[in-house]
Amino acid sequence: MVVMMIPIVCAIFAYIMCYSLISEEIKAANSLALVSAKSAIDSRLSKMQELSISILRDTRFREVALSRNTEQERHWKVAQAMELLFNHRTSLNMDIFV
């Protein structure tokens, strides 16, 4: 009877060891994926923050935001600001509209 229990005990031991090893590998892979995603998101948010700061510092944006001009002048200034935004976005090689 004891002789028959040895393979069963060995199989259970091997199962437990394999289960813990696979579990640790899965946790490590998930951790790596999360770190990679965090890095990508942080990078995009940093670029977006730089962009928003540069827009707020731009005098043309302030003129549009604080203007009491005619509708046509506001449209013209908005078009200029959008062109500036597009040029700034392409210079950073960033797509913020995704």
Overview of this structure, please?
- This protein has a domain of 55 residues.
- The model has no long low-confidence stretch (mean pLDDT 81).
- With 98 residues, the chain is an all-alpha fold.
- It has 3 helices and no strands.
Summarize the model shown.
With 98 residues, the protein is mainly α. Helices cover 88% and strands 0% of the residues.
Sum up the structure in keywords:
single chain; 98 residues; mainly alpha
Count the strands?
0
Q: Count the helices. How many? A: 3
Secondary-structure-based class equals mainly alpha
Oligomer: single chain
Q: Please give the share of residues in helix.
A: over 70%
Q: Quote the beta fraction.
A: under 5%
Q: Using the alpha-carbon principal axes, give the shape.
A: rod-shaped
Main sheet, how many strands, which sense, barrel? Answer: none
- The radius of gyration is 29 Å
Q: SSE order, as H and E? A: HHH
Mean pLDDT level:
81
Uncertain ranges: none
Distance between the termini: 67 Å
SSE arrangement:
Layout: H1 2-57, H2 59-66, H3 71-92
Helix pairs in contact: 2-3
